[in-house]
Amino acid sequence: MEAKTLLQEHIAKTASLTQEEFDYFFSHFKPLSFKKGQTIISEGDKVDCEYFVVSGCLKAFFINDEIKMYILQFAMPTWWTSDYNALYNQTPAQINVDCITDAEVLCLSSSDREKLCAEFHQIEHFFRWRTNKGYIASQKRLLSFMNNNVKTRYEELLALYPQLYNLVPKHLIAAYLGVSRETLSRLHNS
Amino acid sequence: MEAKTLLQEHIAKTASLTQEEFDYFFSHFKPLSFKKGQTIISEGDKVDCEYFVVSGCLKAFFINDEIKMYILQFAMPTWWTSDYNALYNQTPAQINVDCITDAEVLCLSSSDREKLCAEFHQIEHFFRWRTNKGYIASQKRLLSFMNNNVKTRYEELLALYPQLYNLVPKHLIAAYLGVSRETLSRLHNS
Protein backbone atom coordinates (compact mmCIF):
# COMPACT_ATOMS: atom_id res chain seq x y z
CA MET A 1 0.00 0.00 0.00
CA GLU A 2 1.19 3.52 -0.70
CA ALA A 3 2.74 5.22 2.33
CA LYS A 4 0.25 8.09 2.35
CA THR A 5 -2.80 5.82 2.20
CA LEU A 6 -1.39 3.58 4.95
CA LEU A 7 -0.81 6.54 7.27
CA GLN A 8 -4.21 8.05 6.44
CA GLU A 9 -6.04 4.80 7.26
CA HIS A 10 -3.98 4.43 10.43
CA ILE A 11 -4.84 7.95 11.62
CA ALA A 12 -8.50 7.65 10.62
CA LYS A 13 -9.02 4.87 13.17
CA THR A 14 -8.50 7.44 15.96
CA ALA A 15 -8.79 10.99 14.63
CA SER A 16 -11.12 12.82 12.22
CA LEU A 17 -9.18 14.98 9.80
CA THR A 18 -10.49 16.49 6.57
CA GLN A 19 -8.54 15.58 3.42
CA GLU A 20 -7.00 19.03 3.46
CA GLU A 21 -5.93 18.67 7.10
CA PHE A 22 -4.47 15.23 6.44
CA ASP A 23 -2.55 16.52 3.37
CA TYR A 24 -1.08 19.24 5.56
CA PHE A 25 -0.23 16.70 8.31
CA PHE A 26 1.36 14.33 5.77
CA SER A 27 3.47 17.13 4.26
CA HIS A 28 5.54 17.09 7.49
CA PHE A 29 6.64 13.46 7.05
CA LYS A 30 9.80 12.53 5.19
CA PRO A 31 9.83 9.15 3.38
CA LEU A 32 13.04 7.12 3.85
CA SER A 33 14.14 3.73 2.46
CA PHE A 34 16.54 1.40 4.21
CA LYS A 35 18.24 -1.84 3.23
CA LYS A 36 18.19 -5.00 5.36
CA GLY A 37 20.75 -4.62 8.15
CA GLN A 38 20.94 -0.81 7.95
CA THR A 39 20.96 1.13 11.18
CA ILE A 40 18.43 3.90 11.85
CA ILE A 41 19.40 4.82 15.44
CA SER A 42 22.68 3.88 17.17
CA GLU A 43 23.39 4.07 20.89
CA GLY A 44 24.86 7.52 21.61
CA ASP A 45 23.09 9.26 18.68
CA LYS A 46 21.16 12.49 19.00
CA VAL A 47 17.53 11.55 18.20
CA ASP A 48 15.28 14.07 16.42
CA CYS A 49 12.64 11.87 14.77
CA GLU A 50 10.17 9.11 15.26
CA TYR A 51 9.44 6.58 12.53
CA PHE A 52 6.18 5.16 11.17
CA VAL A 53 6.85 1.81 9.46
CA VAL A 54 5.34 1.54 5.95
CA SER A 55 6.90 -1.78 4.91
CA GLY A 56 9.42 -4.25 6.29
CA CYS A 57 10.36 -4.97 9.88
CA LEU A 58 12.63 -3.08 12.29
CA LYS A 59 13.95 -4.04 15.69
CA ALA A 60 14.67 -1.79 18.67
CA PHE A 61 17.33 -3.37 20.85
CA PHE A 62 19.72 -2.85 23.72
CA ILE A 63 23.11 -4.46 24.31
CA ASN A 64 24.09 -4.72 27.96
CA ASP A 65 27.51 -4.63 29.65
CA GLU A 66 27.86 -8.37 29.09
CA ILE A 67 27.29 -7.89 25.31
CA LYS A 68 23.95 -9.66 25.54
CA MET A 69 21.35 -8.33 23.10
CA TYR A 70 17.80 -7.71 24.29
CA ILE A 71 15.05 -6.86 21.83
CA LEU A 72 12.61 -4.28 23.16
CA GLN A 73 10.29 -4.18 20.19
CA PHE A 74 9.79 -5.51 16.68
CA ALA A 75 8.25 -2.74 14.55
CA MET A 76 6.13 -3.79 11.57
CA PRO A 77 3.89 -1.78 9.21
CA THR A 78 1.74 0.83 11.05
CA TRP A 79 3.95 0.59 14.17
CA TRP A 80 5.92 3.60 15.38
CA THR A 81 9.39 3.45 16.80
CA SER A 82 12.17 5.66 18.17
CA ASP A 83 14.16 6.07 21.34
CA TYR A 84 11.45 8.15 22.99
CA ASN A 85 13.50 8.95 26.05
CA ALA A 86 16.30 10.37 23.89
CA LEU A 87 13.74 12.12 21.67
CA TYR A 88 11.84 13.88 24.45
CA ASN A 89 14.66 14.53 26.88
CA GLN A 90 17.30 15.36 24.28
CA THR A 91 19.72 12.84 25.75
CA PRO A 92 21.94 10.48 23.69
CA ALA A 93 20.18 7.33 22.45
CA GLN A 94 20.37 4.37 24.84
CA ILE A 95 18.97 1.91 22.32
CA ASN A 96 19.55 0.92 18.70
CA VAL A 97 17.04 0.60 15.88
CA ASP A 98 17.92 -1.32 12.70
CA CYS A 99 16.25 -3.12 9.80
CA ILE A 100 15.56 -6.85 9.88
CA THR A 101 14.36 -6.60 6.26
CA ASP A 102 14.42 -3.86 3.62
CA ALA A 103 12.13 -1.19 4.99
CA GLU A 104 10.30 2.01 4.12
CA VAL A 105 9.44 4.44 6.88
CA LEU A 106 7.94 7.88 7.30
CA CYS A 107 9.99 10.13 9.54
CA LEU A 108 8.43 12.91 11.68
CA SER A 109 10.56 15.35 13.64
CA SER A 110 9.79 16.09 17.26
CA SER A 111 9.35 19.82 16.60
CA ASP A 112 6.85 19.13 13.78
CA ARG A 113 4.90 16.71 15.98
CA GLU A 114 4.61 19.36 18.70
CA LYS A 115 3.60 22.03 16.19
CA LEU A 116 0.93 19.76 14.65
CA CYS A 117 -0.41 18.77 18.08
CA ALA A 118 -0.76 22.44 19.03
CA GLU A 119 -2.47 23.30 15.72
CA PHE A 120 -5.05 20.48 15.70
CA HIS A 121 -6.86 19.01 18.69
CA GLN A 122 -7.54 15.85 16.63
CA ILE A 123 -3.81 15.37 15.98
CA GLU A 124 -3.09 15.81 19.69
CA HIS A 125 -5.80 13.21 20.31
CA PHE A 126 -4.16 10.82 17.85
CA PHE A 127 -0.74 11.17 19.49
CA ARG A 128 -2.18 10.72 22.98
CA TRP A 129 -3.80 7.50 21.83
CA ARG A 130 -0.63 6.37 20.01
CA THR A 131 1.59 7.10 23.02
CA ASN A 132 -0.88 5.30 25.18
CA LYS A 133 -0.64 2.18 23.04
CA GLY A 134 3.15 2.41 23.25
CA TYR A 135 2.99 2.81 27.01
CA ILE A 136 0.77 -0.22 27.39
CA ALA A 137 2.99 -2.31 25.08
CA SER A 138 6.01 -1.27 27.14
CA GLN A 139 4.27 -2.24 30.40
CA LYS A 140 3.39 -5.62 28.93
CA ARG A 141 6.99 -6.11 27.81
CA LEU A 142 8.12 -5.28 31.34
CA LEU A 143 5.71 -7.78 32.85
CA SER A 144 6.87 -10.42 30.39
CA PHE A 145 10.43 -9.84 31.64
CA MET A 146 9.33 -10.31 35.22
CA ASN A 147 7.40 -13.46 34.41
CA ASN A 148 9.54 -16.56 34.52
CA ASN A 149 7.02 -18.62 32.62
CA VAL A 150 8.64 -18.76 29.18
CA LYS A 151 5.71 -20.56 27.56
CA THR A 152 3.33 -17.74 28.54
CA ARG A 153 5.79 -15.14 27.25
CA TYR A 154 6.10 -16.99 23.96
CA GLU A 155 2.32 -17.14 23.55
CA GLU A 156 2.05 -13.41 24.33
CA LEU A 157 4.67 -12.68 21.69
CA LEU A 158 2.79 -14.62 19.01
CA ALA A 159 -0.49 -12.94 20.00
CA LEU A 160 1.19 -9.52 19.64
CA TYR A 161 2.91 -10.33 16.33
CA PRO A 162 1.04 -13.27 14.69
CA GLN A 163 3.15 -13.24 11.51
CA LEU A 164 6.45 -13.04 13.39
CA TYR A 165 7.53 -16.66 13.45
CA ASN A 166 7.79 -16.80 9.65
CA LEU A 167 9.14 -13.29 9.17
CA VAL A 168 11.98 -12.95 11.64
CA PRO A 169 15.14 -15.08 12.11
CA LYS A 170 14.73 -17.49 15.02
CA HIS A 171 17.75 -16.15 16.93
CA LEU A 172 16.02 -12.74 17.14
CA ILE A 173 12.84 -14.26 18.51
CA ALA A 174 14.99 -16.06 21.07
CA ALA A 175 16.70 -12.72 21.91
CA TYR A 176 13.28 -11.13 22.45
CA LEU A 177 12.28 -13.90 24.84
CA GLY A 178 15.69 -14.09 26.50
CA VAL A 179 15.96 -17.86 25.85
CA SER A 180 18.26 -20.11 23.79
CA ARG A 181 17.34 -21.21 20.24
CA GLU A 182 16.88 -24.75 21.55
CA THR A 183 14.31 -23.61 24.11
CA LEU A 184 12.53 -21.66 21.37
CA SER A 185 12.25 -24.74 19.10
CA ARG A 186 10.89 -26.73 22.02
CA LEU A 187 8.26 -24.04 22.74
CA HIS A 188 7.29 -23.83 19.08
CA ASN A 189 6.83 -27.58 18.73
CA SER A 190 5.03 -28.13 22.05
CA MET B 1 -0.47 20.92 50.39
CA GLU B 2 -4.16 20.75 49.68
CA ALA B 3 -5.07 18.20 46.99
CA LYS B 4 -6.67 20.76 44.70
CA THR B 5 -3.69 23.13 44.80
CA LEU B 6 -1.26 20.27 44.21
CA LEU B 7 -3.16 19.08 41.14
CA GLN B 8 -3.57 22.62 39.84
CA GLU B 9 0.16 23.34 40.10
CA HIS B 10 0.93 19.97 38.49
CA ILE B 11 -1.39 20.65 35.52
CA ALA B 12 -0.21 24.26 35.13
CA LYS B 13 3.30 23.04 34.25
CA THR B 14 1.93 21.65 30.99
CA ALA B 15 -1.52 23.05 30.22
CA SER B 16 -3.17 26.47 30.42
CA LEU B 17 -6.58 26.31 32.01
CA THR B 18 -8.62 29.21 33.36
CA GLN B 19 -9.66 28.92 37.02
CA GLU B 20 -13.18 28.09 35.88
CA GLU B 21 -11.90 25.35 33.53
CA PHE B 22 -9.69 23.90 36.27
CA ASP B 23 -12.58 23.92 38.77
CA TYR B 24 -14.66 21.98 36.25
CA PHE B 25 -11.75 19.56 35.60
CA PHE B 26 -11.20 19.07 39.34
CA SER B 27 -14.91 18.38 39.95
CA HIS B 28 -14.42 15.03 38.16
CA PHE B 29 -11.84 13.76 40.67
CA LYS B 30 -12.83 11.80 43.75
CA PRO B 31 -10.57 12.14 46.84
CA LEU B 32 -9.77 8.86 48.61
CA SER B 33 -7.75 8.09 51.76
CA PHE B 34 -5.95 4.81 52.37
CA LYS B 35 -4.09 3.33 55.34
CA LYS B 36 -0.59 1.91 55.14
CA GLY B 37 -0.78 -1.61 53.67
CA GLN B 38 -4.21 -1.12 52.06
CA THR B 39 -4.73 -2.42 48.55
CA ILE B 40 -5.99 -0.15 45.76
CA ILE B 41 -5.80 -2.59 42.81
CA SER B 42 -5.50 -6.40 43.08
CA GLU B 43 -4.55 -8.76 40.27
CA GLY B 44 -7.78 -9.86 38.56
CA ASP B 45 -9.73 -6.67 39.42
CA LYS B 46 -11.74 -4.68 36.92
CA VAL B 47 -9.94 -1.30 36.70
CA ASP B 48 -11.98 1.87 36.07
CA CYS B 49 -9.75 4.62 37.48
CA GLU B 50 -6.33 6.11 37.53
CA TYR B 51 -4.88 7.70 40.66
CA PHE B 52 -3.01 10.95 41.25
CA VAL B 53 -0.98 10.70 44.47
CA VAL B 54 -1.50 13.66 46.84
CA SER B 55 0.44 12.33 49.84
CA GLY B 56 2.19 9.12 50.85
CA CYS B 57 3.78 6.48 48.69
CA LEU B 58 2.24 3.63 46.69
CA LYS B 59 3.84 0.71 44.94
CA ALA B 60 2.75 -1.02 41.73
CA PHE B 61 3.97 -4.61 41.71
CA PHE B 62 3.72 -7.97 40.03
CA ILE B 63 4.13 -11.44 41.57
CA ASN B 64 5.36 -14.07 39.16
CA ASP B 65 4.71 -17.83 39.02
CA GLU B 66 7.60 -18.41 41.41
CA ILE B 67 6.01 -16.03 43.98
CA LYS B 68 8.79 -13.52 43.44
CA MET B 69 7.66 -9.89 43.78
CA TYR B 70 8.82 -7.31 41.24
CA ILE B 71 8.12 -3.63 41.80
CA LEU B 72 7.24 -1.79 38.61
CA GLN B 73 6.89 1.66 40.09
CA PHE B 74 6.93 3.58 43.34
CA ALA B 75 4.31 6.36 43.12
CA MET B 76 4.86 9.47 45.23
CA PRO B 77 3.05 12.86 45.35
CA THR B 78 2.24 14.20 41.84
CA TRP B 79 2.82 10.75 40.25
CA TRP B 80 -0.03 8.93 38.55
CA THR B 81 -0.62 5.20 38.74
CA SER B 82 -2.98 2.48 37.62
CA ASP B 83 -2.88 -0.73 35.61
CA TYR B 84 -3.12 1.12 32.30
CA ASN B 85 -3.41 -2.02 30.21
CA ALA B 86 -6.41 -3.16 32.27
CA LEU B 87 -7.83 0.38 32.27
CA TYR B 88 -7.68 0.92 28.50
CA ASN B 89 -8.33 -2.60 27.28
CA GLN B 90 -10.93 -3.49 29.91
CA THR B 91 -9.07 -6.66 30.85
CA PRO B 92 -8.55 -7.93 34.42
CA ALA B 93 -5.67 -6.26 36.30
CA GLN B 94 -2.33 -8.03 35.91
CA ILE B 95 -0.63 -5.96 38.59
CA ASN B 96 -1.30 -4.86 42.15
CA VAL B 97 -1.18 -1.39 43.66
CA ASP B 98 -0.99 -0.89 47.42
CA CYS B 99 0.08 1.69 50.00
CA ILE B 100 3.59 1.71 51.50
CA THR B 101 2.47 4.53 53.82
CA ASP B 102 -0.88 6.15 54.62
CA ALA B 103 -1.87 7.87 51.40
CA GLU B 104 -4.30 10.33 49.88
CA VAL B 105 -5.10 10.10 46.20
CA LEU B 106 -7.41 11.70 43.64
CA CYS B 107 -9.23 9.18 41.52
CA LEU B 108 -10.30 9.90 37.92
CA SER B 109 -12.45 7.48 35.93
CA SER B 110 -11.48 6.51 32.42
CA SER B 111 -14.78 7.74 30.99
CA ASP B 112 -14.34 11.16 32.65
CA ARG B 113 -10.76 11.43 31.36
CA GLU B 114 -11.95 10.74 27.80
CA LYS B 115 -14.81 13.22 28.16
CA LEU B 116 -12.49 15.94 29.50
CA CYS B 117 -9.92 15.30 26.75
CA ALA B 118 -12.62 15.66 24.10
CA GLU B 119 -13.96 18.86 25.70
CA PHE B 120 -10.63 20.70 26.13
CA HIS B 121 -7.65 20.60 23.81
CA GLN B 122 -5.42 21.70 26.72
CA ILE B 123 -6.54 18.74 28.82
CA GLU B 124 -5.82 16.38 25.92
CA HIS B 125 -2.42 18.04 25.71
CA PHE B 126 -1.82 17.48 29.41
CA PHE B 127 -2.72 13.78 29.20
CA ARG B 128 -0.57 13.25 26.10
CA TRP B 129 2.35 14.74 27.98
CA ARG B 130 1.57 12.74 31.13
CA THR B 131 1.26 9.46 29.20
CA ASN B 132 4.47 10.27 27.42
CA LYS B 133 6.29 10.65 30.74
CA GLY B 134 4.84 7.32 31.85
CA TYR B 135 5.92 5.68 28.60
CA ILE B 136 9.46 6.98 28.96
CA ALA B 137 9.65 5.87 32.61
CA SER B 138 8.43 2.44 31.57
CA GLN B 139 11.07 2.19 28.81
CA LYS B 140 13.75 3.18 31.30
CA ARG B 141 12.50 0.54 33.73
CA LEU B 142 12.68 -2.04 30.94
CA LEU B 143 16.25 -1.05 30.06
CA SER B 144 17.22 -1.22 33.72
CA PHE B 145 15.92 -4.82 33.75
CA MET B 146 18.02 -5.70 30.73
CA ASN B 147 21.11 -4.07 32.18
CA ASN B 148 23.06 -6.44 34.39
CA ASN B 149 25.01 -3.65 36.00
CA VAL B 150 23.32 -3.42 39.41
CA LYS B 151 25.31 -0.37 40.50
CA THR B 152 24.07 1.65 37.49
CA ARG B 153 20.52 0.52 38.13
CA TYR B 154 20.79 1.57 41.77
CA GLU B 155 22.10 5.02 40.81
CA GLU B 156 19.27 5.43 38.28
CA LEU B 157 16.75 4.54 40.96
CA LEU B 158 18.11 7.17 43.37
CA ALA B 159 18.16 9.78 40.58
CA LEU B 160 14.49 9.01 39.81
CA TYR B 161 13.38 9.00 43.45
CA PRO B 162 15.96 10.96 45.51
CA GLN B 163 14.05 10.67 48.79
CA LEU B 164 13.39 6.95 48.40
CA TYR B 165 16.16 5.47 50.51
CA ASN B 166 14.80 7.07 53.68
CA LEU B 167 11.13 6.67 52.84
CA VAL B 168 10.73 3.06 51.76
CA PRO B 169 11.63 -0.20 53.56
CA LYS B 170 14.91 -1.62 52.27
CA HIS B 171 13.39 -4.95 51.20
CA LEU B 172 11.12 -3.06 48.76
CA ILE B 173 14.05 -1.20 47.23
CA ALA B 174 15.79 -4.58 46.84
CA ALA B 175 12.61 -5.95 45.18
CA TYR B 176 12.64 -3.02 42.74
CA LEU B 177 16.25 -3.74 41.81
CA GLY B 178 15.83 -7.52 41.83
CA VAL B 179 18.73 -7.99 44.28
CA SER B 180 19.13 -9.31 47.84
CA ARG B 181 19.11 -6.96 50.87
CA GLU B 182 22.80 -7.72 51.37
CA THR B 183 23.66 -6.57 47.85
CA LEU B 184 21.59 -3.43 48.44
CA SER B 185 23.54 -2.55 51.64
CA ARG B 186 26.80 -3.08 49.80
CA LEU B 187 25.67 -0.76 46.98
CA HIS B 188 24.48 1.88 49.44
CA ASN B 189 27.75 1.88 51.35
CA SER B 190 30.06 1.76 48.33
From TrEMBL, chains A, B:
Protein keywords: Kinase, Transferase
Q: Write down the Gene3D superfamilies for this protein, in alphabetical order.
A: Jelly Rolls
User: Which Pfam family, any one, appears in the UniProt record?
Assistant: cNMP_binding
Q: Does the keyword Transferase apply?
A: yes
Name any one GO molecular function: kinase activity
UniProt cross-references to InterPro entries, sorted A to Z? cNMP-bd_dom, cNMP-bd_dom_sf, RmlC-like_jellyroll
PROSITE patterns noted in UniProt: CNMP_BINDING_3
Task: Kindly provide the name given to this protein in its UniProt entry.
Answer: cAMP-binding domain of CRP or a regulatory subunit of cAMP-dependent protein kinases
Q: Which organism is it from?
A: Flavobacterium defluvii
Recall the taxonomic lineage recorded for the source organism. Bacteria, Pseudomonadati, Bacteroidota, Flavobacteriia, Flavobacteriales
